[in-house]
Specification:
Length: 318
């Protein structure tokens, strides 16, 4: 089935008023395209390492909406034109042309699954729950993951860097803290590699459900992997529930800016001599993370590994 797409070219200053106009007309859901750069506060809040390069912001914006049924199109377009006439008395509505096109109906919720295929990290096979076991990998350690729509698939270089470091340092007695656990891929891999138990934290409440489902897919009991929603960086209640001087390994595959904040808190949760494995660090942020860790008297950097443009820094609690 095809959807009918209508795109209004206007100005960035008129977007909010036009969005409100569309809502009053009865248009449900819009798409806004512009080249306004993100502010420093916005990028900090999003913890983005690499921003897309945008063309110069010339004050032009496009506001699109989609219709399946065109029986009411004449009324909608008439009310848009009348509304733009009214708004033009208060704000520059720009070109105000409306371009019609067609777009394929897609299952956006599940469309991403076509890109998540089984992959290996050395002798570990990680595959989505809906894919069959490749015969050529039947001898490998199997990890089954369904990230849902909220978390990554684990194919990213940073996840692979963390898995290799976990394998290197964990023992059958290891208690693991997985900060930013997401789908639970690192914690589940640690358990499959023989770790004793895992405690995960994540800002997103969906992590609790995702980890539970992935534990079941891997035939691992829920008592082996507890998950808590919250921010370990500044929430005392979360810090208390996680526990102090308890973990042999803390793993955090997040982003450099978060790790810089996190390194101040993590040592109090590690046992003496415990290992702090980090990744999610783009190479241009490597020195900033190392500088922060080097200034922390409780941590000693013991290893740095690389894959593509990404970096994993491993430290030990003194």
């Amino acid at each position: 089935m095809k959807w009918n797409k209508f795109t209004l070219t206007t100005t960035t200053e008129a977007v909010d008023l036009i969005s409100n106009l569309f809502d009053e007309i009865g248009i449900e859901g819009i798409e806004i395209e512009d080249n306004i750069p993100l502010t420093e506060a916005e990028t900090k809040g999003m913890f983005i390492d690499i921003l897309p390069e945008l063309p110069p912001d010339e004050g032009v914006a496009k506001v699109s909406f989609y219709l399946e049924d065109l029986s009411d199109l004449e009324r909608i377009l008439k009310e848009i034109e009348e509304g733009l006439d009214d708004l033009s008395q208060f704000v520059d509505v720009g070109e105000r042309t409306i371009e019609a096109s067609e777009t394929e109906d897609k299952d956006w919720i599940n469309n991403w699954k076509q890109y998540f295929k089984p992959f290996t990290v050395d002798d570990i096979l990680i595959k989505p729950t809906w894919e069959e076991m490749p015969k050529e990998h039947e001898d490998k350690l199997l990890i089954q993951i369904d990230p849902g729509t909220a978390f990554g698939t684990g194919q990213h270089e940073t996840t692979q860097l963390c898995i290799r470091q976990l394998r290197k340092y964990l023992t059958p007695d290891s208690e693991i803290l997985d900060v930013g656990t997401g789908s639970g891929i690192l914690g589940i891999t640690a358990l499959k590699l023989g770790a004793k138990e895992v405690f995960g934290t994540d800002l997103d409440e969906n992590a609790i459900t995702a980890v539970g489902e992935n534990l079941e897919a891997n035939q691992i009991g829920g008592e082996k992997f507890r998950v808590l929603q919250g921010n370990i960086i500044d929430d005392k209640a979360v810090q208390d529930q996680v526990g102090y001087e308890r973990y042999d390994i803390v793993v955090a595959n997040i982003l450099a800016d978060v790790i810089i904040l996190l390194q101040k808190e993590i040592p109090v949760h590690l046992k003496k001599g415990g290992i702090f494995i980090t990744s999610g660090i783009i190479n241009m942020k490597e020195e900033a993370v190392k500088e922060a860790m080097n200034q922390n008297e409780a941590l000693e950097i013991i290893e740095t590994t690389y894959q593509g443009e990404w970096v994993s820094i491993t430290a030990r609690k003194r």
